[in-house]
Structure formats: structure tokens, C-alpha cells
Design a protein that fits this description.
Layout lengths: L10 H8 L4 H13 L6 H12 L4 E6 L5 H4 L9 E7 L2 H10 L5 E5 L12 E7 L8 H11 E12 L5 H10 L5 H9 L7 H5 L3 E9 L2 E4 L2 H10 L10 H15 L4 E4 L2 E8 L2
Parallel strand pairs: 1-2, 1-4, 2-3, 4-5
Antiparallel strand pairs: 5-9, 6-9, 7-8
Helix pairs in contact: 2-10, 10-11
This protein binds S-adenosylmethionine.
S-adenosylmethionine binds next to helix 1.
């Protein structure tokens, strides 16, 4: 199998390798779920924000929905009047959504957020959770999200702050200073952050509000950290001895931290309304 270098943004790499199924995403989510300091789960919090801006009867779209984690974690409180369309660039992700959410309130489609297969003004709420940083032509995608929303409809767009998990980046850099992972991480670190996202949304949306989720990681075991790093899928990580070096460095950092390696998080979302 050929392997694209992760010179992102690169849709083919995203759809057929990094996100061909949920395994890489799950390795990263596992670290957050296991060692996050906020006991209120992320997906519950995101759903609270969505509930705060959408009516009880609503047509809802999630773009780049991955395996549908937001909905799996909130099925118990899905408003009976919501009809939800889940989409993703990756066919493998859409298969996972379909398998997990067999409920007539859901429909599914493989779709690129830069060219949505929906009529104008189809939705009351659009959710883009940790995906806009992957999109090569973000103004095109944001114009599509605006077009798909009815006038006055709401956007919920979650992303990271520029300082998110910086200690983990430093760990990676200390072991593989030249790794392509640096570009991979930078590719979604900087293009759409909690700090620079509002100005990108402003041509398409108004009443833009930033809401932050207070969290950090206190990691006490090296293995989930190494699994997280390997999910980044850099060719540099396949060199002999690299796994062992990551594990040894992780152990050192955990010991230096008195039994826990502290990792900063900066994460949250924008809530905004469609410009008329
Ligand atoms: C970090 S994952 C987030 C998944 C999910 N929203 C979540 O929070 O668990 C990013 C997702 O965006 C999808 N994606 C990337 N570029 C996309 C595009 N241009 N259009 C639609 N989806 C895209 C990926 O396939 C992947 O499933």
C-alpha cells in the first residue's frame, strides 16, 4: 500500500488513511476520556451547547461527524422533534455512524463540507466538531454551512486553542525532532483555533460567541500516551526503536510529575447565527 506523507490538508489522506475508520480517533479520545480532569464529559457538554441554541423541533446537520460519538453519548436526551443528518468525508466513518445509530431520526451521507449535497436553508442547526481545521478551503466550507442553514439558524463549531496539548507535542518533538508529525499537528493546530476562528466565521455568521470547556490531562500510564502518539501515523514513528523511546520518555515525564504527566488543554466551541 502506498502511504501519503501527511502533508495536510490532504483530503485523500484524511478519507482513506487517517480517518478510514475510527481507530486513530478512538486512540486519541481514549486519552482524553481516561485522564481528563473535567468529570463532565466533552460530548455531553457539546450537546448542552447545541440544545441551548436549537428549537425542540429541528432539522440538524453534523458535518465531519466521525463515528457519531456526539449522538451515541446523548441518545438518552435527543429531543423527539429533532431530525439529524450525519455526514463525513470518509465512507468508513459513515458506515460506523450507520451501524451505531439505527434510529429513524437519523440519516447518513458521505459528504465533503466544501460541497454539501443539501438544498439551501435545509437546517436549523449545523454542528462542525473538530473538523474545520482539516478543510483546505475554509471560506468555501463556511459559505456552504451558511447556505445550508435557514436564516437565523445556528452554527456550533468546536475546535482547539493554540496551546492545546503542548506538552505532548514537546514529548513527540524530543523523540522525533524531524518527524512529519510536526507538520501533521501544525496543520490542524493553527488554521482554525479558538483564538483565530471568530474572525474566519465573521463574513458568514454573526453573534459569534466563544465558549470554553475547562479541562486538562493528568496522565499516569505511558501506554495510552504512546497509543495516542502512534495514531498520528507519521512515517517517522515506524523507525526501529521509536516506540520504545516514546514509552521511556513518557515514563520519565510521569515520574518527574510525581506520578502524573500534566498536559494543558485548550478546547471549546463557537456558537454563531447565520448572517441574513
Ligand atoms: C477529528 S475528527 C472529528 C470527528 C467527530 N466530529 C468527533 O468530534 O468525534 C475529524 C473528522 O472530519 C472529517 N473530515 C475531514 N475533512 C472533511 C471534509 N472536507 N468534509 C467532511 N468531513 C471531513 C474526517 O473524516 C473526520 O471524521
Amino acid at each position: 500500500m502506498t502511504h501519503d506523507a501527511p502533508d495536510l490538508p490532504n483530503k485523500r489522506y484524511l478519507a482513506t488513511q487517517q480517518y478510514r475508520d475510527a481507530s486513530n480517533l478512538n486512540a486519541r479520545a481514549a486519552l482524553h476520556i481516561r485522564y481528563g480532569t473535567n468529570s463532565y464529559p466533552w460530548f455531553r457538554w457539546v450537546f448542552d451547547q447545541a440544545l441551548s441554541v436549537a428549537p425542540n423541533e429541528a432539522s440538524v446537520l453534523e458535518v465531519g461527524a466521525g463515528p457519531g460519538g456526539l449522538w451515541r453519548e446523548n441518545l438518552d436526551r435527543l429531543p423527539t422533534g429533532w431530525r439529524v443528518t450525519l455526514t463525513d468525508l470518509s465512507a468508513g466513518m459513515v458506515e460506523e455512524q450507520r451501524a451505531a445509530l439505527a434510529d429513524p431520526r437519523f440519516t447518513f451521507a458521505v459528504a465533503d463540507v466544501e460541497a454539501l449535497p443539501f438544498a439551501n436553508a435545509s437546517f436549523d442547526l449545523v454542528i462542525a466538531n473538530h473538523m474545520l481545521y482539516h478543510v483546505p478551503d475554509r471560506p468555501k466550507a463556511l459559505a456552504e454551512l451558511r447556505r445550508a442553514l435557514r436564516p437565523g439558524g445556528a452554527l456550533v463549531a468546536a475546535t482547539n486553542g493554540a496551546q492545546n496539548i503542548r506538552e505532548l507535542d514537546n514529548l513527540i518533538h524530543s523523540v522525533t525532532p524531524d518527524a512529519a508529525s510536526a507538520e501533521w499537528r501544525a496543520s490542524f493546530r493553527h488554521p482554525f483555533t479558538l483564538e483565530n476562528g471568530a474572525e474566519q466565521l465573521a463574513p458568514f455568521f454573526e453573534q459569534i460567541e466563544t465558549r470554553r470547556y475547562d479541562d486538562a490531562l493528568d496522565v499516569t500510564e505511558p501506554e495510552p500516551l504512546v497509543a495516542y502518539i502512534l495514531s498520528i501515523d507519521s512515517p517517522a514513528f515506524r523507525a526501529p526503536g521509536v516506540n520504545a523511546a516514546f514509552e521511556a520518555r513518557a515514563r520519565e515525564l510521569i515520574a518527574q510529575g510525581g506520578g502524573a504527566f500534566h498536559i494543558t488543554k485548550s478546547v471549546g466551541l463557537f456558537v454563531a447565527r447565520r448572517r441574513a
